[in-house]
Amino acid sequence: MVLGSGLGEFADQLKNRVEIPYSAIPHFPRSTIEGHVGQLVIGSSSGVSVAAMQGRFHYYEGYAMEQVTFPIRVFGLLGIKSLVLTNATGGINLKFKPGALMLMTDHINFMGVNPLRGANNEDFGPRFPDMSEVYSKRLLSLARREAKRLRISLEEGVYVAVGGPSFETPAEIRAFRSLGGDAVGMSTVPEALVARHMGLEVLGISMISNAAAGVLNQPLDHREVLAMGRRVGGTLTRLLQSLVPKLA
Ligand code: HPA
């Protein structure tokens, strides 16, 4: 599980927790962003073993794509079967209210880079991996079912990944909307691509932390993203808790 900006709470309630700072894990970079704790938490939830990253590595921090996605390779080699990726996003879809949770049904990679570029390691997966179902239909229906049971309302949509670190311009957001994007963020897609390369099942959950640039007549601020994480984090945690035993 990768817990995004302000969304680290799930890891705090794991049973028999072991917390490992990224600085203590060979070849792991360190999180440099406020709101990202920067540790791997391993424990159990409803009897299922979970490895949860409190904070991830972003391309905009200056890391190579190999570094950004290194933890996913490690998780794959540890033998995980399902990967849950969470993130904070700006809402492009005008129907989405800040604070909403959105299941990622697909993505558009506007980062201009692909983590699978370079020599392919056949032990991980094929040179040209299929991406027609990045976000598992099986996990999507599990998530819908659990959300319904918990009376948590969920949006669904297409995540547009940008490199950042600048927020988008209003013209970029209009362009993304006309291309079919529903939410925009600066992460997740590299991890999802590497996970699919290794054949892992992926679920993506976005928190809409703010209306994307130009939607409201106000500037965007990272503090807004963190504040929304604190408000919505509990709901996401409940959803993840009820999902975990079903994933296994
Ligand atoms: N744009 C890009 N990334 C984001 C945003 C946004 O508006 N909000 C949170 N992450």
Mind explaining what this structure looks like?
- The protein has a 5-stranded mixed beta barrel.
- By secondary structure, it is an alpha/beta fold.
- Helices cover 30% and strands 27% of the residues.
- Helix 5 (170-178) links the parallel strand 7 (154-162) and strand 8 (183-185).
- The chain has a single domain, classed as Nucleoside phosphorylase domain (Rossmann fold, 3-Layer(aba) Sandwich).
- Bound molecules: hypoxanthine.
- Residues 88-90, 167-168, 184-186, 209-210, 212, 220, 225 line the site of hypoxanthine.
Dominant shape = globular
CATH homology-level superfamily? Nucleoside phosphorylase domain
Q: Which CATH architecture would you pick?
A: 3-Layer(aba) Sandwich
Please give the number of β-strands. Answer: 9
| Contiguous runs where pLDDT drops below 50 for at least 5 residues | none
Overall pLDDT, averaged? 95
- Oligomeric state: single chain
Rg result: 17 Å
Q: How many H/I helical runs? A: 7
CATH-defined topology: Rossmann fold
Q: Give the helix/strand class.
A: alpha/beta
**CATH class assignment:** Alpha Beta
Q: Would you list the SSEs in sequence order as H and E?
A: EHEEEHHEEHEHEHEH
| Helix content percent band | 25-40%
Q: Which strands sit side by side, in order, in the main sheet? A: 5-8-7-6-9
**In this structure, how is the largest beta sheet organized?**
5 strands, mixed, barrel
List ligands, each type once.
Answer: hypoxanthine
